[in-house]
């Protein structure tokens, strides 16, 4: 069987059970062996036919930086799941190490193998959803995150940001971005998951697109396709999204979203609501 590998991917994240380990990020070393047939890619020379190691590395890096797992076993299983979601990957060997975790040992860790049954395992899509509320926002943002957790596989949640209302003066918004994996296509995701959540939380749409609302759930990115060009200009989108996709690059000037967010933050009144950061935890 053909393999594609990612060697010595070094990511900083929170992992461990002690107070010291959970107080700050530490080095996590990841090695992947991705199993899949690459013969078509060898013939066509097309990236679409390859196992896209760059996409996988970016996805795993973004996940590990925010996962805050207690054990390397759980983190390795998460990484295997994310890898098997990728097209053309039918199996994966994951090695996760904590350098310097044990005295006199260079590193400790775990290695696992996982395979998927292509007949029963659906293809998974990656979606980044913007949450916004300025009517009882603390209650409604929390409720929306809870409902998304019940219906989707949530990979990461940004910090909760407080931002000014766009357009006419109004109550300030709370905003966050959720990164999820779903077997649903874009329209099905909107119809079966997002619209029912908005309806349950009392979303009422009016001719005024800037009117206060209990909750807004908007798809920003679907399978690396940017659906909302406002991510490059609006602080309420760029700041939370940059936490999860800092690498995202503007198509016209190649400026990264991390750079754009830094520039916007210097002129914005937006700030992270530290009292609501428990909502960003997956567990």
TrEMBL record:
Record-linked InterPro entries: Dihydroneopterin_aldolase, FolB_dom, GTP-CH-I_C/QueF, Hppk, Hppk_sf
Record keywords: ATP-binding, Folate biosynthesis, Kinase, Lyase, Nucleotide-binding, Transferase
Record-linked CDD domains: DHNA_DHNTPE, HPPK
The keyword ATP-binding is assigned to this record: yes
Protein name from the UniProt record: Bifunctional folate synthesis protein
Protein family membership: Belongs to the DHNA family.
Biological function: Catalyzes the conversion of 7,8-dihydroneopterin to 6-hydroxymethyl-7,8-dihydropterin.
Pathway terms, separated by semicolons: Cofactor biosynthesis; tetrahydrofolate biosynthesis; 2-amino-4-hydroxy-6-hydroxymethyl-7,8-dihydropteridine diphosphate from 7,8-dihydroneopterin triphosphate: step 3/4; Cofactor biosynthesis; tetrahydrofolate biosynthesis; 2-amino-4-hydroxy-6-hydroxymethyl-7,8-dihydropteridine diphosphate from 7,8-dihydroneopterin triphosphate: step 4/4
Pfam families named among the record's database cross-references: FolB, HPPK
Ranges of residues in domain 7,8-dihydro-6-hydroxymethylpterin-pyrophosphokinase: 209-220
Domain of life: Bacteria
GO function term, MF aspect, one: 2-amino-4-hydroxy-6-hydroxymethyldihydropteridine diphosphokinase activity
Catalysed reactions, as listed in the record: 7,8-dihydroneopterin = 6-hydroxymethyl-7,8-dihydropterin + glycolaldehyde; 6-hydroxymethyl-7,8-dihydropterin + ATP = (7,8-dihydropterin-6-yl)methyl diphosphate + AMP + H(+)
Enzyme Commission numbers on file: 4.1.2.25, 2.7.6.3
